[in-house]
Amino acid sequence: MKFRAYVIFFLLFGVLSDIYTCLLFLPVLWDIIICIPTLAALVCLFFIGAGVRYTPSLRLFSYIIFIFEFPKFIFMLFSSIGIFLLGIPRGPGAWIAFGVGAGVSMFFSYLIFYSTRHLKVHEQELAFEGLPKEFDGLRICQLTDFHLGSFGKRAAYISRIVDETLAQKPDVILFTGDLVNFEAAEAESYLDVLARLEAPYGVFAIRGNHDYLLHGHHNEEERKADTEKLHSMETGLGWTVLLNQNILLKKDGAAIALVGVENVSTNPYFLKMGGDLKKAMEGLPEGIFTILMSHDPSHWRREVVPSSDISLTLSGHTHGLKYKLAGLKPSHWKLPESSGIYTEGAQVLHVSKGLGSAFAFRLGGFPNIDIITLRTKTL
Q1: Which among 153, 164, 238, 210 is positioned nearest to 187, based on CA atoms?
Q2: Exposure string (b/e) for 197-229, b if CB count within 10 Å is 16 or more?
Q3: How many CB atoms lie within 10 A of CB 280?
Q4: What is the pLDDT of residue 327?
Q5: Residue from 134, 347, 364 nearest 252 by CA
Q6: Helix (H) or strand (E) holding 125
Q7: Which long-range contacts (CB under 8 A, 24 or more apart) does 14-23 make?
Q8: Where in the chain is CATH 3.60.21?
Q9: Which of 52, 54, 109, 153 has its CA 20 to 30 A from that of 140?
Q10: Which of 313, 350, 318 is nearest to 331 (CA)?
Q11: How far apart are CA 295 and CA 316, in angstroms?
């Protein structure tokens, strides 16, 4: 399904746009130049379909599509409207359309190379009646959605994330999934950097939907082996990976529970990933203050709220996808809890905007490191 979508993008934004441009406007030399990105995209498409160098090929393909091919499609669209519907002469119509296409190209370049790496630290306090006073002031650093494959083998941006996280002096670091895009190999060149993450209570992680590596492998056996390799990498960093498991954080005789559940989603493609909230909470003392790490925020309203008394749920997955179109909120149709704080009675959900994106760019604003300070609410 994914590969078919890439082929459609290639044919629509690349081939069709090039045919239109070559037939109507440019000399032969410019025709050749204008087709070079499409040829490069075709080579990437070959490697993607063959499963060879899948991640870097897909990254380059996405850059070509949004910086070159989609702007050419916009040029085709605007010039066609101007010339054939509005009667604008071909020369001026082409220049107007070129300006619009160039603007679109610059916009996507801004998203890819600046906005997507413009790191922010977001701090907030959350108060709970059931939080033991011993944990009043606990500083949680939530990291989510690294998507390391989107940044190549070495990116200073990842080091900046680690440096900024350590500078916040958190008590505990919680990573809520999607370390990579498609292959465990994406993390290999960053292991020394990620190994620097540390906190007094430790670093805890769960799997996101991308951490099941559902694309880019030739068969299920290969996928499972690569998933286990990724798990070994994370534990090798000193992280505790909670797969439908829980652990107690203790201080001065008091304790709170940290629960990690495997991915649960409203998307039918991601449902069968083993998420089991009941299993994850087995053995917990009744009434204990509980923090749940669940990658997809749709899990919160679907199961967490109606069937548990979990006080705080931390999620990612959405990349902060929260936008309006003509007064409507299309981003909320499938993911109504897409960014920030949501409450239902005494239960709270925090959805982080995350740090990266599996796509070439982010639409949800600047990437975030989230620092959440817990407070004991007094009556």
Answers
A1: 153
A2: bebebbbbbbbbbbbbbebbbeeeeebeebbee
A3: 21
A4: 46
A5: 134
A6: strand 120-128
A7: 14/38, 14/41, 14/42, 14/65, 14/69, 14/72, 16/73, 16/76, 17/69, 17/72, 17/73, 17/75, 17/76, 18/72, 20/76, 20/80, 21/72, 21/75, 21/76
A8: 121-376
A9: 153
A10: 318
A11: 5
CATH 3.60.21 at 121-376, yes or no: yes
Q: Across the beta sheet with 290-293, what order do the strands follow?
A: 245-251, 254-260, 290-293, 312-315, 347-351, 340-344
The model's pLDDT over 297-312, given as tens digits with 9 standing for 90+, comes to: 999 999 999 999 999 9
Q: What's the whole-model pTM score?
A: 0.90
Phi, psi (rounded to 5 degrees) for 89? -55, 150
**pLDDT average, residue stretch 177-188:** 94
| DSSP letters for 313-329 | EEE-SSTT----BTTB-
Unique residue bearing structure tokens 């702007």: 71
Q: d(Cα 142, Cα 224) in Å, to the nearest integer?
A: 27
**Could you tell me if residue 89 is left (phi over 0), alpha (psi between -120 and 50 degrees) or otherwise beta?**
beta
CB-CB contact of 358 with 151 (8 Å): no
Rounded CA gap, 375 and 214, in Å? Answer: 39
